[in-house]
Amino acid sequence: MQDKNTKMDLDEMRLVIYQNGMSALRTQRRKIGLSQSDLALLVGTTQPQIMRLENGDRKFTKEWAERIAPHLNVTAQELLFEDILPQDSESLAGVVNQNTEITNQLIDKPKQSNPKLDKTNGAYLTPADHIPIAGSRLARDVPVLGVAVGGEDADFSFNGDTIDQVRRPPGIAGQKGVYALYVVGTSMSPKFEEGDLIYVSTTRPPSIGDCVVIELYPESDDKPGKGFVKRLKSRNSAKVICDQFKPPKEITFNRERVKSIHRVIPWNELLGV
After folding, report:
1. 135-270 shares the fold of 4-108
2. Longest C-alpha distance within the chain, in Å?
3. Core-most of 33, 92, 123, 129, by most CB within 10 Å?
4. Torsion-angle region of residue 174: left (phi > 0), alpha (psi -120 to 50) or beta?
5. Tens-of-pLDDT digits for all 273 residues of the chain?
6. Helix (H, G, I), strand (E, B) or coil at 158
7. How many angstroms separate the first and last alpha carbons of the chain?
8. Hey, what CATH class is 135-270 in?
9. How far from chain centre, in Å, is Cα 242?
């Protein structure tokens, strides 16, 4: 009697595989020896975000695939099941019927490394440039500053707390004046998505074109100052002008109201590339 799974639609079988934890993302991550935290560090997001993507709790979009694929030595199409799984229903049904833990048999062909534009730093890198990091060897000494949603006219406000300590990437080993925070809101998407972890330097002055964290002086003693993550466009003694991406908009800050401007450290610097 023919197994009923062989009659499944290919997309349906892929969904079954995904729901059984056999996502191509998880498979390839394990194959090259990265933990979820390692991959999150390379991609510029958080370990919970990677976990949600692997578990199907967050939609694995084309944008996410393109962002992650270079760090896994595969193409975005492979992560989206377009050529990483068997292409005929009978072979795919065999994978479904196994219903076992992920195996490297799902990915057993050599991968071609094609140069891709790393959108976080504008430099052409190949997957070979990204060396897997042994997360346990990285000091967990960078404070994550707590923030609160800022309301209609701000991204966030600092709440004065240190909510976590995260690992220090190798490119900033020994660098003083570094903190991290989780992005609030989507005004800098797709550069930074909500929930992404960014590292910030308080010691190196930002240059025009850098992404920055801007904190304003509080408007009253009982409220924290407003905070923003933007891209620095220009500045002078009277004002600071920044851009955001979503929606595209130019924002001007009165220089007298600006308490601090801190540079967001690009991922090529964090990784020492």
Report:
1. no
2. 80
3. 92
4. left
5. 334 444 444 454 444 444 443 467 877 887 888 888 888 888 888 888 888 787 766 777 888 888 888 888 888 877 775 444 444 555 545 544 443 333 333 333 333 333 333 333 333 333 333 334 444 467 889 999 998 887 668 899 998 899 888 888 888 988 999 999 989 888 998 888 888 889 999 999 999 999 999 999 998 877 888 999 999 999 999 999 999 998 999 999 999 999 999 999 998 888 776
6. strand
7. 57
8. mainly beta
9. 22
Domain ranges of the chain: 4-108, 135-270
Helices (H) and strands (E) in the chain, counts: 8, 11
CATH number of the domain at 4-108, out of 1.10.260.40, 3.60.150.10, 3.40.50.300, 3.30.70.2190?
1.10.260.40
Annotate 109-144 with DSSP letters as a single string.
SPPP---EEETTTTEEE-GGG-----GGGS-EEEEE
Question: Would you say 195 and 43 are in contact if contact means Cβ atoms under 8 Å apart?
Answer: no
pTM for this entry:
0.55
Amino acid at 255: R
Specify whether the CB–CB gap between 241 and 234 falls below 8 A: yes
Rounded Cα gap, residues 12 and 3, in angstroms: 15
Cα 198 to Cα 40, 53, 83, 95, 166: the distances in Å are: 11, 19, 33, 38, 11
- C-alpha to C-alpha distance for 118 and 124, rounded to whole angstroms: 6
Q: What is the distance between the alpha carbons of residues 235 and 253, in angstroms, rounded to a whole number?
A: 9
